[in-house]
Amino acid sequence: MLKKKNNTIEMGDRFIKKGEPKIVWIVKSKGSSIAMVPHYQVVREDYESRVRTLSENVLLDTGYYHRVD
Q1: Domain extent for 37
Q2: Domain count, the chain
Q3: Which among 9, 4, 19, 22 has a CA at the least distance from the CA of 59?
Q4: Are 56 and 38 within 8 A, CB to CB?
Q5: pLDDT tens, N- to C-terminus, the chain (69 residues)
Q6: Residue 2 forms part of a structural domain
Q7: Which of 8, 52, 56, 69 is paired with 33 by a 20 to 30 Å CA distance?
Q8: Is 63 a member of any domain?
Q9: Which of 32, 37, 40, 31 has its CA nearest to residue 12?
Q10: Which helix (DSSP H) or strand (DSSP E) does residue 59 occupy?
Q11: Of 58, 65, 21, 25, whose CA–CA distance to 43 is shortest?
Q12: Is residue 9, in this structure, part of any structural domain at all?
């Protein structure tokens, strides 16, 4: 099985925030293309009306979020 590169984000990718290991956030869509840094809309896995817009830099920074399978 091919391993996904950790420096790219795709729809459906799952992340947990550091310090909140039981809450999973799923990438649902790419945010505004106006900003120089790409942004993504993520929804809480167990509560889909909870939406956040996060920059690519924040999602890929392991000091804030970790990708999960």
Answers
A1: 14-68
A2: 1
A3: 9
A4: yes
A5: 444 557 889 999 999 999 999 999 999 999 776 778 899 999 999 999 999 999 999 999 999 999 998
A6: no
A7: 69
A8: yes
A9: 40
A10: helix 56-60
A11: 25
A12: no
